[in-house]
Amino acid sequence: MSNKKIPIYVFNNNESKIVLSDEEIYAIETEKKKYAHARAVVIEALKIVQKKRGWISDQAIFAISKILKISISDIEGIATFYSQIFRQPVGKHIIRYCDSVVCYINGYESIVKEITKILKIQPGETTEDGIFTLLPVCCLGNCDKSPTLMINNKTYNCVKSNQIQFLLEKY
Ligand code: FES
């Protein structure tokens, strides 16, 4: 990568300054070349930065908006729409549970109750040791095997509350 020309960006966001790494800028610029409209690159740009930093700060939103020449509010709108993009720091492992109607009927509440009891956190929170973050989501697309839980990228089907301790111990 050393002989590739990387554009220089200096991002001043009032009180703070962020300079994305050469790799992040290069990766975003590379994606940008693939599409006629920069807007098509926003999700990929957010994923690139999140992969490196774990979440998307306000400063990162500002930096991406500069590179893509898209307004901060547009980037922010897209970032907050997608549940896979984190706008605050999260734990090492993300637990997502579905709180939609089929999982409700099949008892997701008892699963969440068990998780909150074991981890001592509420939905939307991260454990003190930074290992787990618990997040509700609207349907994981696995309704016929509900209640459904996802830990990172792994889906768990027909979960029962008495399986939670065992599941968490895997991480
Ligand atoms: S309703 Fe829970 S996975 Fe669809």
Automatic annotation (TrEMBL):
Catalytic activity: a quinone + NADH + 5 H(+)(in) = a quinol + NAD(+) + 4 H(+)(out)
Sorted UniProt keywords: 2Fe-2S, Iron, Iron-sulfur, Metal-binding, Quinone, Ubiquinone
Record: residues binding [2Fe-2S] cluster: C98, C103, C139, C143
UniProt keyword annotation of Metal-binding present: yes
Cofactor dependency: [2Fe-2S] cluster
Cofactor note: Binds 1 [2Fe-2S] cluster.
Gene Ontology molecular function: 2 iron, 2 sulfur cluster binding; metal ion binding; NADH dehydrogenase activity; quinone binding
Pfam families: 2Fe-2S_thioredx (PF01257)
Assembly behavior: Composed of 13 different subunits. Subunits NuoCD, E, F, and G constitute the peripheral sector of the complex.
UniProt record similarity statement: Belongs to the complex I 24 kDa subunit family.
Role according to the record: NDH-1 shuttles electrons from NADH, via FMN and iron-sulfur (Fe-S) centers, to quinones in the respiratory chain. The immediate electron acceptor for the enzyme in this species is believed to be ubiquinone. Couples the redox reaction to proton translocation (for every two electrons transferred, four hydrogen ions are translocated across the cytoplasmic membrane), and thus conserves the redox energy in a proton gradient.
Protein name stated in the entry: NADH-quinone oxidoreductase subunit E
Species for this entry: Candidatus Tachikawaea gelatinosa
Gene name for this UniProt entry: nuoE
